[in-house]
Write the structure tokens for this entry.
Amino acid sequence: MVAFQCHAQVADFDSINFNKADRIALECKHDQLNNLPALAHQLTSGLTTDVERFRAIYKWVCITIANDYPLYEKNMRKRQRFKNDSLKLNAWNEQFRKLSFKTLLKKHRTICTGYAYLVKELSNLADIECEVVQGYARTSTTNIATLDVPNHSWNAVKLNGKWYLCDPTWASGTPNATTHLFEFNYNDGFFLPKPELFAINHFPIDKKWLLIENDAPTFESFLEAPVFYGKTYTNLSTYSEPTKLHNTIQKHDMVTFKCELLKPVASEAISLLIDSGNRSEKIHPKDISIKDSSLSINYAFESSGLYDVHLYIGTDLVSSYTFRVKNKL
């Protein structure tokens, strides 16, 4: 089990009001990318702290730049195809950099590398230390079997002498459930979350960017972890268990779900959607404990079988698991 500790996070800036930074980002929404120094100045000159200035840059990128899903899929197909041929892979990477930069500049559309690059460049122009982090990321649609090449980029930023993490790509929006086209839908949970929560579905190539000093997750535990969604970041500050997506237990054995909440939640808002393949039922577990910000749920399966289980807080889907429940010997 991963032990969670309190590290750098947005809570470090509880005294900061980001309304002015967010307003500046919105006012500059239609600015172009042909003069990055001027854009960085426009976004940050009226703000006094580095965290507010970074917030304006980050928010501007998130609400202005669209995620180009077809471009991302094309890049991943090529990278998968050339993963064992370094010459072809390098040639494709060079070709793709030019294509993606042109798309970003002219159409304000990009993929994760473009988001992370833009946040870094604008931050550096504002004298804020910021890096692009390359690594692996998991969503509900990620095929773990083919996750053998890095598939995502995000940022690390240094504020008041500490490093923080953020993901402008995932914060910017989501695909429409019907059309699968990108829709802007800003998610503030990806702005400086706790590293321990971030690490559940982000794993950097360079492990120093986990920003976790003790009991850091391994790549294997990252691959085995439950599926987490965007709403995880707006509801939780950390997560403890179950630690795996696929679980095998015996009938009547107790399963425990544990996490730390970002905001007060009534026990009535907690539910589990349990799908056996033949039947889907949303239940409110009887054994729920909420003490301060700590949420603990105990649940026992009464019948054997294979179950998909989804944890909800209100209407927000937080995490998913499978449970193979066997009869006791």
Q: What stands out?
A: The two ends are 27 Å apart (CA to CA). Confidence is low (pLDDT under 50) at residues 1-6.
